[in-house]
């Protein structure tokens, strides 16, 4: 059976109703967002974001309007965008796109000159200043205020989304395996080792190839498959970019990979050693293994993000390696690879069943290497399920020379 990446109309009905309920609880008449991830979440329309606004207007009454440039209309129709479509000719336009939307959604019973009768309309907090100014001018019948009603709805994944995350995890595991095989095959062949860039290109091809071979309706969003591949001192930079450096005996190297299925992300990261590990490499790898294991054991519904972070990173501190910590335990994952909530000391958000978060403690020793293990975790009432399953222990992450 072919796996389909597209979610059905029932999903978008449910999503919109969930946001509408939050609107009503907040006393808002509508919400407006130009965030590409929000647009995809509410309507199923994925697009390449640019200067031309693509905007969703969702009313507490149930009406959902999608504003888009006319050049995107056929694209939205081909994706069965779950909204009333309104298009404008071009940007910046003789008439502002925001004015086009305002004319379509302006209530007949609300006067544009009556401040007391204006609607309460929330806007996403990611909107740019330029667009917020344009929207404020266009929606003279509304009082705009920031809101997180859409973001909060995105926290909890519905069953259809969970299946997309699971499939993304399956592919990510296969990408990790493909990266390791490429290195091990090079060792057996006795030729030159792959470079960071070659490894990154290889695993990206594997991930996208699996999707196009095994899936229908592949959703192309901001990213399909790939990631960061770095080794030696380059890996001591948490987001170091792949280079032409070729792996060498004794190197620590990291495969920080992921993919998006139906626009839903998963990341899986493992740290490997080329040849017999030194005492320091064993110490560093064991520390992050134990910290990540603590995260797998403690993440659960009802736990605050800051508490989860503390429990996890304390393992590294207790091992005497706290000076090498450069980042939090993890973050939320969904239509964005990085999105709230944040598993960090400053986030008191309570974890809930249905959230997907990363569990990725790491240490970074300048001039030597970085060490990080990451799984995408589905939070449950009883605990959390790691969606990615590639082996994590150092014994399983050694490249024999």
UniProtKB/TrEMBL annotation:
Superkingdom: Bacteria
One example GO MF annotation: aminopeptidase activity
Keyword Methyltransferase in record: no
Name of a matching Pfam family: Creatinase_N
Stretches assigned to the Creatinase N-terminal domain: 19-105
Domain Peptidase M24: 163-381
Keywords from the named record: Aminopeptidase, Hydrolase, Protease
UniProt KW RNA-binding keyword: no
Protein name: Xaa-Pro aminopeptidase
